[in-house]
Amino acid sequence: MDRLANLTTMHIGGPARTLIHATTESELITAVRTADASGEAVLILGGGSNLLISDDGFVGTVIRIETTGNTYEIDACSGGTLTVAAGDDWDGFVAFTLDKGLANLECLSGIPGTVGGAPIQNIGAYGHEVSEVIARVRAFDRVNDCISTFAAADCEFGYRTSKFKVERERWVILDVTFQLRRGESSLPIQYQELATALGVTVGDRAPVESVRTAVLKLRAEKGMLVNQTDAIWSAGSFFINPVLSPEIAATLPDAAPKWVQPDGRIKTSAAWLMENAGVQKGDRIAGAQISTRHVLAISNSGDATATDLVALAKAARDKVFTKFGITLEAEVQLVGLSLD
Asked: What 8-state DSSP symbol labels residue 191?
C-alpha cells in the first residue's frame, strides 16, 4: 500500500488502502462517483500542504487531483480572466500571472498547494486573500451527482474558510476562474514586515515583481518554501489567527497585535499568543518540533509521527488557553486525528 507520507509536506501519514491519481476531470469525477457508490470513505488530496494524516493511514480511497492546464483572456481595459484546473501548482500559477503582466496575486506567492485548494481554505498572506480575485468556482457535487458553478458571492468566503471547507465532504473543486488587474503595481502593502522588506510605508504600492521577490524571501527565511533545500517539514501555519469579539480582544495586553475586521471583530496573532504563553521555538515532543524559525510551524524534525505532532500542538494550545483563555483552531486538516 502507498504511504501517504510521500504525498504530504509534513512527510507524515500511514498507508492508503486505495490511491488513485486523477489526471483529467473525467477521471476525477469517475473516481469519486465509483468510490461513493461503493460506500468507501474518500479523501480528496491536492498538494498535501495543509494536511496531517494519522499514522494508521486512511482506510478507504484517496483520490489525488493532478489535473492541469488553464485558459485565459487578457484585455487592456478589463484585465485578465483565467480559468485554471484544480491540480495546477499554486505558486506556478502566480508566477504565470506575473509573466503575463497581471497583478493582485503577488502577496500570495510561495504558498504551497494547488489551485483547487486555494478557495477551500481561502488562502491568504500579508493582508490579502484569494477571495479578492476569484470570479467563480466550478465543483462536482457529490450529493446531487452534478457539476455546479458558484459566483464568488456564493462561495461563502470568510477568514480561512468557504462553503467548500464547511461542506468538505460534498464538493470537489474542478477549476477556478480568476479576474486579475493588468499593471506593474501591487495591491496596497498591508503588513509592516513586508513593507519594511520593500522599503515602503504600509498602504503604499510597490512593483509586483519586487513584492513577489520579497514575499518569497520572507517565506524562505521561515523555512516555508516546499522546494527549498532547508525547508521545514510542516504544513505551514498550524493554527489560524483567532478572530475575537471586541470584548475578548480588550482583555489582551496592549502589545498584542489587533487588526479590526470589516464586521467589527478583532483579529490577533496566533504566533504572538503562543510566544507570550511560553511556547518557544525549538520545543519538542519526540520527533515533533516547534520550528526554530517560525513558532506557528509545528514541524516534523525527520522522524516524527502524527501522534507526536498532535501532542505538541495540544501542549501549545493548552498554554495559550491557560494564559489568555483563547482556544486556538487548527488551520491544517486533521485526518483520523483530533486535538480534543
From this structure: -
